[in-house]
Amino acid sequence: MSRENHMGSKNNTLSRRDSLTSSSAAFTAAAFIGKMEGQKMEQTSGWDKSLSGKVAVVTGAARGIGRSVAVAFARSGAHVVGIDICTTVDPRSGVEPATPDDLEATGELVKGAGATWKSIILDQRELPKLRNAAADVEKEFGHIDILFANAGIQAFRPLLEMEDADWHIQIDVNLTGTANTVRAFGPAMLRRGSGRIIMTTSTQGRHGTFNGAAYSASKWGIIGLMKSAALELGRHGITVNCLVPGLIDTALTRHEERYEQALQLAGRTPSGDVKADEAAARKVLQVRSPLGVPWIDPAEMAPMVVFLASDAARMVSGATFDVTGGDSANNV
Ligand SMILES: NC(=O)c1ccc[n+]([C@@H]2O[C@H](COP(=O)([O-])OP(=O)(O)OC[C@H]3O[C@@H](n4cnc5c(N)ncnc54)[C@H](O)[C@@H]3O)[C@@H](O)[C@H]2O)c1
Q1: Which atom of ligand 1 lies closest to the CA of 247?
Q2: pLDDT digit string (tens) for 141-180?
Q3: Does residue 21 lie within any of the structural domains?
Q4: Catalytic residue from among 215, 220, 259, 295
Q5: DSSP H helical segments within 142-212, as ranges?
Q6: What CATH number should be reported for the domain holding residue 196?
Q7: 215 given a catalytic annotation
């Protein structure tokens, strides 16, 4: 079972935990815990400028995975356009909204890496705004080479209790919004006869998610979208692939609702004290993680995305690429 699916099968969670604590595996896991976590790797030098002169568009760029990849693109020589909504998307998700300051902080890091930066605040559910943005970028930079379609949201609601809005907001933002970015930025790549599109899906797009049907459906949908786009755009020199992150240390993941779920599914009772629940959830997730990490640093996503965006990946299309800290070993 994937760590990101810690809301998944309760029986699986318990049986795996129980087997760990009742066997020598417990000793191995305990000895290993913390080792990998201490090995955070943000690669600040040694990028080989494989994206030199490329123009890269990143959605969800204000923070988290989007920010890490925007900075890695810059360190690899690309000009970066960062797009984000920078406000509350779903007030019921328990996730703090990104702000315009967050987006500008990404911009400072991009510029600090010696790259040109342009920021655009918009909601990716709005196709006309994305199309205007694409026209502006093409006018200003002359071309668009890379789209990292990464923005997304997540909330948990039991399927039979959710309201229409719970379903629509996640499908609209994650699936329709991602398709919108391709529809808006794809034509510039088509005119150029080359391009790289990388979409962010999730391990929850590889299996079901307890109390997370809308998110899971949206992320499975992104894989179908990616494969269809790869078929349609390949003849125009455009590759299309998906990044599959595991459980990543970002605002989307690190909040009380998620800690509570992790604890409940491990048969524990959340205390309601955020710090205590975070510490307890950390332990639960670490024991379940093949590489002994509760959450992966978002910077760990960047090398895979930079590779997929590079010329070296020209024969790679229509595929998913997992960066999950070993959780992929539990997927069938
Ligand atoms: N954090 C994880 O564990 C994890 C795991 C798998 C997949 N993902 C996916 O990775 C992507 C990035 O997530 P993150 O963890 O960095 O979270 P995050 O909340 O830190 O970043 C997401 C960004 O997307 C922006 N955004 C949301 N809705 C938008 C919209 N309608 N228009 C424009 N921007 C919008 C947000 O403002 C935010 O800055 C998401 O698609 C998420 O589903 C995350």
Answers
A1: 3
A2: 999 999 999 999 999 999 999 999 999 999 999 999 999 9
A3: no
A4: 215
A5: 164-170, 177-192
A6: 3.40.50.720
A7: yes
